[in-house]
Please model this.
Amino acid sequence: SEESFRQNVGDFLEVLYERNSRAHVVIVMNKVDEVAISRNELNERCKLHVQSCLGHFRKIREAQICQMSKLQGAGGFKNNNYIAGRLDFLDSQQISVEEEVLLTSAATCEGVQGLWNLLLRLSENANLLPSLQTWLPTAWVNVEDKLVQPTSHRSVPITDVSNAVALSIQHGLTRKGCLLLLDYLYQVGSVLYFSRQVALSNVLFPSSAFVVNVLKAVFRHDHSGLTYDYRFIGAGIAPQQFEHMKCDLVSNGIARIPMLLALWSEFHLTADCHDYIDVFIRLFLAFDFGYLLASSDEVARRLSDTFRRQALAIPTSTTPQMLPLPTDSVSSSSAILTPMIVEPQLTEQSEHSENLICELKENNVGLLLPWLLDEQEPPDVHQIWPQDRKDGTMQVVVKYSFAYTCPLGLFERLSARCHRHSNYVRHVHWRNGLLMCYGPATLLFSCNKKPSSAFICLQGRIATSHYNAVRLWHILLRCVADVEDLLSSI
Model:
């Protein structure tokens, strides 16, 4: 059905189109030996998958062109060069889908060699993979090999930037050259190094797959099937506590610290790994994946401020920018990136991290993750926000409409980011909405994610007066700035 296609494939294709509208898609049907259908029927399904993907991309592109054409015809936009240029750009974009669907077998690994050959052929296309077939300093290659090589199967692939600097100096690089190398490796996807996030700028993740798997252990929708086992025993969760924490996670989207430790136990992120737990909580807060909830708003805000004390993004003027890689041999790493480097904040914080994690547990602190909330609007919303505005109340509305669909995760991140503003008092929250108060003002944020009619709407109400009008607009502007910042990061 169209709905199942959207959930299983469509969302991924939309993210792909947003990131790179000239991507090359290869469809792989794996474990075909475990499907009880004939080869002819399998081939027909392959053709259907190819046509479905092409049709979905075409629908996205046509919706964007339609919306841009409407803008071009609107007053004030008729002679807008940006709109005209954007239309020309969209008209030239076309994601290609490989017509041959690769079939792989779980039992015999049949088809894996064909996939390997296809990837090798695609890697020869410099337009698809511009970072390949370029010259790099030998020292860079040697340092990368050492960084990404695991020390043991039980080790946690997280290290301090100072360790990478020391390793780089052993291979003849300077500290500046090492930071340039880390930025390059991050931009080509070899490591994760968030130099713009000061709270994480001293942390290096040599394995991006490890970080993805840690996040996947939390952001999944089968938590209702959790049963009490060794993971929860190891995290110090009693059976009666388990049922309460499971209910919090499944029904309210709240992951308590012991629950996180249990979900992460397979990655060796145990209760004694305070530094690593500290790092991931900082990562959740810095990238607006969630926000802290405690026994009181005061405790939650104090702990959030502690974790986020240095989590503000560095201005974009200091962001390293990628330069074209030279075609001949490179003798100096400074030829790769511009030398605008963010110096990492190197601090000794093991004892500090341990104290923080202990305080989180003592205050029963949890991370509220908007992605895990119910999509259904709670029934008590209209008690706080009546559909008909009361007399003597003014309302301001800011609406963002999207050409095809709302960028995935945008509203969830906005919901988490709003919690940074310490004067907000949250009343009701659900997956596609947020109702809160800010002093005398009441705010309702909502999101419609239906294709071709997607929008995010920010509304505010306050008692009518000139002073309140200015005040309400000032409050909403802060949220508008949040939306603009999140949109620019997509």
Q: What stands out?
A: The longest helix spans residues 39-73.
